[in-house]
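lol ok so funny story. i was supposed to be doing the assay writeup but got distracted and ended up predicting the structure for this chain instead. priorities right. anyway since i did it might as well share w the group, maybe its usefull for someone
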Amino acid sequence: MTSALTRLADWSARTPKRLWLISFALFFTLTGAWAAASPLGSSPDEHAHFIRAAAVARGQIGGTEVMVPHTVAGIEGHFAETGVQLPQWYRNLPTVHECYSWREAQPASCAPSLGNSEKIVQATTAAGRYHPGYYLVTGWPSLLVDGPKGLYLMRFMSALLCSALLASAVVTAAEWRRRSLAMLGVFAAATPMTLYMAGMVNPSGGEIAAGILVWTALLSIVLSPDPVRLNRRLARLGVGGLVLINIRPLGLIWFGGAVVFCLLLTQRRGVLGQVLRRKALWLWTGLLGLATAGALLWAARHPDNSKIDIPESLTTGVAAKKTLGNTEVYIKQMLGFFGWLDTPAPALMYLVWMAVLATVVVLALVHGRTRDVVAVLGMLAAVVMVPVLAQASQAERIGMVWQGRYLLPFAVGLPLMAVAVCATRAPGHGFPWRRLVGLSVAGLLLADVAAFYWTLRRFAVGTKGSWVATSAHWAPPGGWVLWTCVYAVAAVAVVLPALLPDRADTAARHPDRVTPRPDHHPRVPEPA
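and the output, tada:
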């Protein structure tokens, strides 16, 4: 059985195009399973993003500002939302989750019907100020199919976009000579929360997937130099950067942070000069510059005019202290906190994921050079302190609204940077790297499937229901058994390439599989 799986993984990774297509299909299966198995509107603010996407698809890029009373994080206020003209059943979306959100014992069977009235009325969305690019990609299926089926198709479009970005990150990692370690970093960065948000209509999914691709491409450029592959890596970096910057203004900060930390790792002479001489770099720099200008212009023309009654007791210092105290909560939210942040993953998932992350970070600190250690410690500090600084600076205006997923497009760089340092700096012998990768991948696989089933069980029977949801009160289309099995099979298959022998070992054992490079493309040797 093991031999058959190894042969299958070797076949799938034989060419970059084949690996990309297979990884794309498997990631789409994983994110699509989240999309199909989660109740509509069960993720944070999804109703607002559904309405925004449907409106943009109908040419309503803007809309009328409407002040709507809300209470967020215990603070009351009148929030500036955008009024758009849609079929009446869209106006029922904000109510579909209210009967079970924050009522963990209540299954999703209580959700009311959306109705089917096609009468055009005004619906409001809190996402009306966001850049329309993501919503144009996800919203167009609503023109083809009405009702819940159209909403599921919107989710699948989000899953397609994120899966393409994640597949590109896998292919980039697989180009390293010690590809097993590099691919471990991608799978550790693609937390259950990443896959969950990718399957929802929410720009966070695209942000996080683009962040993984940006970090993977940047680390490949600065630590695994290869003139032959440089243009394609610059292209992947450019595509990831365009998605990241165009989704939300914060994307520009996350992109800039990734560039700074990756440059800290550059220690080989001539690498930056080689990159700067490429015309592709300046082409993508120009496109990213235009995207940045467009995103900043959009943000400037669509300010948030909400009026929030911030209590006088919520000062900058108080907000900073509270945010620092919530660090553990934010870390758990980055790993997996589902629903409206009311459905934590099982404790096993947090323990396994944190154990893998801690292991690779410690090994990077042990084997890294001085600048590597500074970069890794800097990332650790940033993961803790960026939320503190961001929320403290805005608390007196918008309150305590930070969530772990907001930082995830940047925080994914920690595991990716750690494994990159190990792959390039650590000796190939003297430590059981293959065993480490195998155990880590197996642990992440089990934890991921457990998180999926645990969340599906919560929606089916509630947290106090049976551990095996045989008498489910609510079931997704196709049933919970189908999607659990589909998810488990795809989770196993997607990690198999990480278990293949590294390129250096393959070249030594099977020289016939090594494709010679043309003489006019001198290749800089990659680190062992």
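The two ends are 30 Å apart (CA to CA). Strands lie at 64-72, 75-87, 120-125, 307-308, 337-338, 343-344.
back to the writeup now i swear
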